Amino acid sequence: TGTNHVFEDASEFAEKGSVQWNNLRMSVINLVELILKRPLTTVESQILLFPPVCSFCCVYKANNMFSCESCHSVLFCSREHQKSDSKHSGACKLLGLAFEIDTTRFTKRSVFLDCIKSLTPPNELPHSTELFLKQGNTSLSIENIMYSQPLSYALTLVFAINKIGKVSRNELIVHVVGADAMEAQALHTFPVVFNLLKLTHLRIVMIGPNLPNDIILPPEIEEKCSLVLISNKLYHEYVTSDAFTRPDVTVVYNCGFCEFMDMTEKDIWKSTLPFILNQRDCLVILTSYTAEESKQDLTRLCNANNHVASYNVLMANEENPFCSLCPLRNWE
């Protein structure tokens, strides 16, 4: 670039609007991947998506940068800009919580196991993740908040089924489409699914190109849960194969259908979307990170399934009371 720092001229792009600023960061990631001849890891991508520039003006000044003393998550180039950044002051507390969660992950490895042991599964679903975790206590520990991340997958599944009242059998086949390590980690919370839905057997088909192959079911549900892992096929390839079993429920967590819609080489959803709504008597559950993404994801799914004779949208773009309580930094 001819500069001392790859983001030294970032302010010029930020001044043109968020689209230009976002495009710059994605372009830098693509360039680095070309140079390294490999995809970046999550941590490496985060470094470039949240570069060390001033949160207020996006300027990089090598000897002037300092971090927010409260959240340790953003940088400023001057005290004046720190005081002027009203956008950050509104998010500072949540960013501080996110920072505490990240540091706890590195210092305490048994967080989830400790939470599982301390919680008593209720017989009925409470009204939110927070109430599920509090269990009569007045506040939540940092460990409880962290545990809400994997727990939200199980509770969201139960909530959607209960809300719609679509599935009443004691045996279910659930397809988890686009699954990766997050869905795999969430499996250890699935004993609550059995408890809350009164199931005798659950068959889970997890499918996704980034799915780990070393997933183990929790011991307490091994005998009543069948797990099928598919990482060498995309969902539309599985649906048209002899191994396909028709689902009662199809769930796509944090679906991101539109994330790469304008990048043909990365848009792997294009071929899969037409196969999601064409299963008869199947409840389809989608979650998205934001309300706007939810609208876009649902629109794209429906547009891709205009050949399907009949389907009903039973809930659209509603806030999920069983989402994770962990703050998520949105680089956009």
From TrEMBL:
InterPro entries in alphabetical order: Mss51-like_C, SET_dom_sf, Znf_MYND
Keywords: Metal-binding, Zinc, Zinc-finger
Gene3D superfamilies per record: 6.10.140.2220, SET domain
SUPFAM superfamilies membership: HIT/MYND zinc finger-like
Keyword hit for Disulfide bond: no
Superkingdom of this protein's organism: Eukaryota
GO molecular function annotation: zinc ion binding
Domain MYND-type: 54-92
Protein name according to UniProt: MYND-type domain-containing protein
